[in-house]
Amino acid sequence: MSHKQAPKHRNPLDLADIDDALSSEEKAIRSSVRSLLADQVDPYIGEWFEKGELPNVRELARSFGEMGLLGMHLEGYGCAGMSAVDYGLACLELEASDSGIRSLVSVQGSLAMFGIWRWGSEEHKQQWLPAMAAGEAIGCFGLTEPDHGSDPGNMRTFAKKDGTDWVLNGRKMWITNSPIADVAVVWAQTEEGAESGSNGIRGFCVPTDTPGFSAPEIHHKGSLRASITGEIVLDDVRLPADAAFPEVRGLKGPLSCLNEARYGILWGSMGAARTAYSTALDYAGQREQFGRPISGFQLTQAKLANMVVEISLGTLLALHLGRRKDAVGLRPEQVSIGKLNNVTKAIEICRSARTILGGNGISYEFPIMRHMTNLESVLTYEGTPEMHTLMIGQAVTGQAAFR
Predict the structure, then answer these.
(1) Distance in angstroms (rounded) separating the CA atoms of residues 199 and 121
(2) Mean pLDDT of the chain
(3) Looking at 105, 133, 161, which one is the last position of a domain?
(4) Annotated catalytic sites, by residue?
(5) What cofactor is needed (predicted)?
């Protein structure tokens, strides 16, 4: 039986010493990402959010590309080829700054780039991935439609053969990066499904300068304001035959991309939670009421203790799933466990942290309200909590309850 004395050093942001489970290389990657964000994002993100803009986005993308953050977990074609844990730690730091910044990186790398890397032709990969990895080209991912969010199998966007060409018509909604994108990965129904009675969804690599393609920006958002969001409108967009992804059919293609993005979210949400918790912890130590700091009162300590417990549990879950993804891969329900738990807990942490700041908690002088409103979007994109609950329920019971 071991009777070793635990080290006396304690870090209130990592009370469980989860850092001890990380390698020196993983810590170095995390530190590099944090330094970049501290220099290029953190001093400005509050103003960007309040104004509802993300200026110099291409300059920021190039900086991320130089660090290897774009498609960092992919191999070849100029991608960094780092581990799933490396990518997860980067997402945590990105979202500790802002969910919109993490969305820029994860839509680029886990949706658009992964879609091309996993399902595109060799020509698609050679044409787009090196430029996207460098941040010289921006991608977006067109799946969600105005009337079909959680039910993508019934999408109305349609790709019809005309000779050897494809002609696409339809509309996608809530598409991160679409107004500034150079290439869009678009999923559409085809005649293959209509003829066979099966799901004939196919993916297409669509240069955004193709005639008939437009991407009007969505304004008046109350969340993810430091993120560029738009529609995709396809009006007789004519593409050559080789624009279609050659092999994948049905929902397997887009859902595989969504699982990549969801993995980044389950890490990233813990970054937003950490920022809210650390802000509340600092504030509680400085704010005095009844003659002493409010951190000395039991109810405040209970809130802070609950926050650090949930952050510890959520980060451990993310690390476990990351190690498993690197070793053997993840099943969809395992990603759902992480996304459902970590995002809902992060929102609870932000709300509790806000109460410690009282009225100051709603001020944009502090980051908590910004993170709280951002997480309301993160909660429902890449799968609503209801859908993730049902995915877990199906895995547990063997019964599908989606319809």
Answers:
(1) 21
(2) 94
(3) 133
(4) 382
(5) FAD
